[in-house]
Amino acid sequence: MAFGKGCHLHLIDGSAFIFRAYHALPPLTRKSDGLPIGAVSGFCNMLQRYIDGNANGSDAPTHVAVIFDKGSHTFRNDLYDQYKANRDEMPEDLRPQIPLTRRATEAFNIACKEIEGFEADDIMATLACRARDAGGRVTILSSDKDLMQLVGDGVEMLDPMKNRRIDREGVMEKFGVGPERVVDVQALAGDSVDNIPGAPGIGIKTAALLINEFGSLEDLLERADEIKQPKRRQTLIENRAQIELSKALVQLDRDMELDFTLDDLEARDPEPDTLLAFLAEMEFRTLSKRIADALHVEPPVIMDTDPGGTEVEGPADLPFAPETYECIRDMGALQGWIDRIAERGYVAFDTETTGLNEMQADLVGISLSVDPGHACYIPLTHRAGGADDLFGSDELAEGQLPLDDVLAALKPVLEDDSILKIGQNMKYDAKILARHGVTIAPIDDTMLMSYAMNAGLHGHGMDTLSERYLGHTPIPIKELIGSGKSQVTFDRVAIDDATKYAAEDADITLRLWQRFRPQLHQTQVTTVYETLERPLVPVLAGMEMAGIRVDREVLSRMSNAFAQKMAQLEDEIHGLAGEKFNVGSPAQVGEILFEKMGLEGGKKGKTGKYSTPADVLEDLATEHDLPARILDWRQVSKLKSTYTDALQDHIDPDTGRVHTSYVQTGASTGRLASTDPNLQNIPVRTEEGRRIREAFVAEPGKVLLSLDYSQIELRILAHVAGIDALKAAFREGQDIHAMTASEMFDVPMDEMTPDIRRQAKAINFGVIYGISGFGLARNLRIPRAEAQGFIDRYFERFPGIRAYMDDTVNFAKEHGFVQTLFGRKIHTPEINAKGPGAGFAKRAAINAPIQGTAADVIRRAMVRMPGAIAGLPAKMLLQVHDELLFEVEEGAADKVTRAAREIMEGAAEPAIKLDVPLIVDAGQGANWAEAH
DNA sequence: CTAATCACG
DNA sequence: GACGTACGTGATTAGC
User: Fold this and answer.
1) Coil, strand or helix: which one is A477?
2) What is the pLDDT of residue A390?
3) What was the pLDDT predicted at A311?
């Protein structure tokens, strides 16, 4: 039937349906594989309800279409780059459901239309106008006010949720003008949701008033000088361009070119087979049954499969059979694997190398797996002569494919956007491959999946995961390369043995991935994994490969000076003690101090030895010289051995720089850990120690740039605990410790003394750590009762803090974990234990959301940073929990500071809008001491 | 291999 | 009422 008089077109706003469905339902997943499916389920239910309610009624439509947005960039973005710029990113678990909603629409046999680069609103506008011109009626199923400009002359809107019709009167009620003037009002009022600027200070009410007075926006702008109110007049004159731009943005395109006609949208009944097959595929049991009943057919049988579970027989329970792993020795076999990988779209991948230092280690072989129990190893640079061969040989072993040929063949796979590369600790493999010119992407990482789901419960190394989740102990690497002095590198391992070991790793990784993938959704950490873990891998790899330049001469000079000073102190100490002993032995120091000299305060540890930590020695140092000298010696010794000596050994001979490794899964709270060397604990608190930072230098012509969050944890505490006084202080840029002191001790701000402030500062930090009277007393060296008094007063003054602590501990007791603002879970398995462990767990539970949220914030900044500084001559080098260090060409330092600061200060958004500002302090200089 | 100590946030 | 406590890390050394 050709569309014309008497016809009735229904236009369904598909995107609105999807978002309603998504937000209305809990995050359901498909049971068989964990695919997120909640929005699709809700969408189908809404379509079904629509059909039940409308399609067969007395006012049934003759034509129906569901219209979707397509592409994120439309002509409106060309007009205005900030259009919809403040929209949250699409939730990660919604993204894969979008194509499924198209398929759902088609399964219901309803026309499904979208046009690249256009919003659904424009398509609906064009269709509505054409239908009206053809003499038909139109109902738009949406509550979007942007569509209200289309109402009138046979076009109505219907809010499908409230089942409320919106006609001319409805539009008048909402906008104060008729549909034909809606865009004029919108242009003036603007729209924060779509980021339409409009005229500042003018809302819908005022806009309608003005339009009604002047007749149209054009007349209003033309005769703006006639507006009586001076402020309003000025606003309209000054913002004319912006208002005109706004109108262009809200005006829907009613005359789009379409590749279909109204006639193509004729209403059709669903094909039962097609529809039920789709519903069965989605595993919608209830909906399948309801629709099957309505269509008077048998509901489909939906298998109750659960391959991720342990009870069900499935791939995960296949035995491991190392002898069946394939060793790839010719290009034909390799091509067979590549074909299978391309067909599947994913592959578990692992590299074997000659060492743990990715900057130095050489690639020895590669293993792959696409099916559980089935894996291969591609030996590349194994040496002739086995591990037992004392002489070894630098000759390559026979029967290996040339490294370059294999990499050339695998490079397209490893860089293919549509092939997922799955690894365990992929940062390592990514760095090895980067040295061969391969940028591996996209990736999944079983180590990070485990971390996102189970931080705080157990480690995330392959051996732990395999034993825990696959019930299988992998072949220990020691069986191949030995340990200690007789350890050899992997290229000395016989290829047959290497195949069993290496291919097993790929097999295990694939099995872990198959198990973890659905669990990620089930445990609701998909967003954490997708936004805070996975995208950080290439960022950290880049920082580690960049390294930081360290001046060996500076360190060497300091080492010599320290050695002299240590010898001098040692003489003094031995003289004071009256005998020679090892100053570096706490046990011997304890003997001398507490037995020979008979000093008070000697406490023995669980090994029966005296303990001589710095705070005990500090107390003794007020009375005696010996403990004071021992403290001096310890400080110098620490600086020398850990820093000026050890750091020199970490300077890479090829780059002249120090390349740390970040452990992404090291800290349960979400913080990073830095190893080999640890560059997150370079001294700064003492003048002497801080000089070590002078050895961390920029290349000639460049500067080091340090940006650090100011008081980020206290700010987060103020936000999560909802402490208005703290929030206000941060908003006003006050000295937070002084403010706390003023509140607690009733001291006016202008009479604040450094000592009172110091005590308040200790309390503020104590709060973050899960304060106790004992701990505060020890820290401030005051009687315990007095410390407890401080804490009582603090809680009295800020009752929200105690409530936060109680709530957090109760949450942990109930759920076994706590969460950061961004959804990271930190498990607290000891929280319900009794005994001293409970106290630890309790304080850890209080601290974890605060420390963890701060960690999430800087992670978000780091993930966005490469994009923000792209094109600038700058590199991000280091992260020290609340600080990022960059190396920048001198002339660009200020520009990079601005760009990086903007990213860091806005890092919580759009996911979280904090009630307090995040403030970033910046510094620059030729070395780290100057920059910090 | 573990405990003690101390560097950082 | 007593107990034992600040939160999160990594590197080095001594001493078994």
Assistant:
1) coil
2) 58
3) 36
Is the distance from CB of A166 to CB of A159 less than 8 angstroms?
Answer: yes
Which nucleotide is closest, CA of A846 to its C1'?
A: C7
CA dist., res. A907 & res. A532, Å (int): 12
Question: Residue A264 in contact with residue A256, Cβ under 8 Å?
Answer: no
- The CATH fold assigned to A8-265 is Rossmann fold (3.40.50)
Give backbone dihedrals phi and psi of A46, rounded to 5 degrees, phi first: -70, -40
**Tokens 């973890």 correspond to what residue?**
A516
Q: Are A30 and A282 in contact (CB under 8 A)?
A: yes
pLDDT at A49: 87
Which of A536, A506, A362, A377 is CA-nearest to residue A435?
Answer: A362
Residue A527 (CA) to nucleotide C5 (C1'), in angstroms, measures: 35
Which pLDDT does position A834 carry in this prediction? 80
Q: What length is written for chain A?
A: 932
B chain positions with any atom within 7 Å of a protein CB? 3-9
CB atoms within 10 A of CB A917: 12
Report chain C positions within 7 A of protein CB atoms.
3-15
Q: Judge residue A323's burial from the number of C-beta atoms within 10 Å of its C-beta, 0-12 exposed, 13-18 middle, 19 or more buried.
A: exposed
CA A640 / C1′ B9 distance in Å: 22
Decide if A451 contacts A436 (C-beta within 8 A).
no
**Which residues in chain A show pLDDT less than 50?**
306-316
Protein residue closest to C3, using CA and C1': A836
Q: Quick one: CA dihedral A477, A483, A486, A487, positive or negative? A: positive
The gap between A301 CA and C7 C1' (Å) is 53
Instruction: Outline which parts of chain A fall under CATH 3.40.50.1010.
Output: 8-265
How far in angstroms lies nucleotide C7's C1' from the CA of residue A462? 28
Output the DSSP codes for A371-389.
Answer: ETTEEEEEE-SPBSS-TT-
| Across all strands, nucleotide nearest A854 (CA–C1') | B9
Residue with smallest Cα–C1' gap to B8: A681
- pLDDT recorded at residue A335: 98
Contact A924, A705 (CB under 8 A): yes
Alpha-carbon distance A901 to A203, whole Å?
33
Order the strands of the A164-166 sheet from edge to edge: A111-113, A63-67, A8-13, A137-141, A155-159, A164-166
Can you tell me whether residue A207 is helix, strand or coil? Answer: helix
DSSP A12: E
Q: Which CATH class is domain A549-691?
A: mainly alpha
Contact predicate A262/A287, CB 8 Å: no
- CATH 1.20.1060.10 domain extents, chain A: 549-691
What pTM, to 2 d.p., does this model score? 0.71
Nearest CA to the C1' of C12 belongs to which residue?
Answer: A642
Burial class (CB in 10 A: 0-12, 13-18, 19+), A277: middle
- Straight-line distance from CA A840 to C1' C3, in Å? 13
Burial readout A870-883 (b: 16 or more C-beta within 10 A, e: otherwise): eebbbbbbbbbbbb
Please write the tens of the pLDDT for every residue from A324-370.
Answer: 999 999 999 999 999 999 999 899 999 999 999 999 999 999 999 99
* Residues A345/A419, Cβ–Cβ less than 8 Å: yes
Using a 7 Å CB cutoff, list residues 875-914 of A near strand C.
881
Alpha helices per DSSP H over A798-918: 799-815, 836-869, 893-905
Q: Which residue is nearest to nucleotide C14 (CA to C1')?
A: A585
CA of A157 to C1' of C6 (A): 61
Q: Give the CATH H-level superfamily of domain A315-523.
A: Ribonuclease H-like superfamily/Ribonuclease H (3.30.420.10)
Per-residue CA distances from A842 to A358, A846, A847, A853, A925 (Å): 39, 6, 9, 18, 42
